[in-house]
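Retro notes
What went well: the complex prediction finally ran end to end.
Inputs used:
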Amino acid sequence: MSKPHVALVQFPGSNCEWETKRAAEAAGLTCDIFRWNREPDLLAEYDGYIIGGGFSYQDRIRAGVIAAKEPIVDRLFSEAVDNGKPVLGICNGAQVLVEAGLIPGLRPGEVEMALAPNRPYPAGRMAGFCCCWLYVKHVAAPGRCAFNSNIAQGEVIPIPIAHGEGRFTTRSTAVLDRLRENHQIIFQYCDFRGNVSDELEINPNGAVENLAGLCNPEGNVLAMMPHPERASFLRQIPTDIAGEWGQCKLEAMGNAEAQTQPGPGLAVFTSLRDGLLQRVAALAAR
Amino acid sequence: MHQIELLVRLKIPDVTALTTINVLRRRMGYAEILDKLDRADYYLFEVEAASEEEACEIVRKLAAHTSLFANPNKHVFEVRPWRPNPRLSQHDGVYEVNCFVRSLDFDPGPGLVASLHKIGQESVRSLTTGTLWTLHLRVEDEAQARSIADEIAVTRSRSRGILMNPHYQICQVF
């Protein structure tokens, strides 16, 4: 069976497309960088989609909102909602998906949440851009969405964040209730032992419920603020990371071959690959 | 107590405003209605002073000399007394509607006031900050202008609204 083919949508201001492509290809996908101003209908040829990180349209007005109005996102919306194809939004991609009404997607097209500026800290002063490694806990059952089948429930993953507007929030408590009921919460910020708490070091952007990654009810769209592509190879892991991955990194020090081994973020892309292979096989069997 | 407005704009064309009007006109169907769109950083001061003119002068000096509000290399600013204005201004069938967008959960005003007090500007009692968008709408009447401004401002869906996200911001239309 040929490799699944994904389009990585590039907007003016995207800046993570090459490393995301590298991670997707390491996971066994073929990946084309697809510019925002190409004919949107060409997206139909692809099995799945990724919107990577960066600052689309320089975050004008607020992050992701301008890109969300582009015709290419209309097409992505229809491929996701009407055809059930998987869409992964990372960081700025997550912001685009929220502003496009694909996440949380309880009523597709409605803007039910925001990725607001990081929490004010200390009180009265803006936290601003936050760039660091932290931990997320994979709280969903494997297979809940198209991007988590290869991650064990409860697994703690070291992963970097880099954003100024990454605080998942909503004015609707009903939306939060529905997210819990539907098991749409995939990743939550936690400490290296997996404890989920709202301390600044653990949840630096102040996201409600420590939300780091959310899927839509159908599970084919995932928005995550951390960058899995920056944790896809052992060489990317810092040496001072606590836990199993930090130990792996230390053991690989001085061994160039070992440094190319998969990192914890690669499982997001291998899960996508496996899901797409199953989907392609199912479609072929019809 | 006097309420004084400070509006700070870029000297060069404002690319955020240009991008926004481009999206509204080309992608969201407002080409025939939206004539112009301006954007400014907006500060509403409450100033203790003997007269309105004196209060304006205090704010003018703060804007010109403290580096907290405007950088003279790239900004121009305008100071004016705040006036309750129940009617929208209108010229040749074009209504001017202000949308004041600010954060629900983060107000830099108290921090700025504390900074001003530290440098001896204790006549400033409070400060509200945000972004002021001014829409120039070619519509039938004032009610329609207000209604369309609200529709443009509040992002309710991917096809409706752009200036603010109601999950962490609020907007006053005036």
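What we learned: Chain A touches chain B through 33 residues (CB under 8 Å).
What to try next: split runs per interface for comparison.
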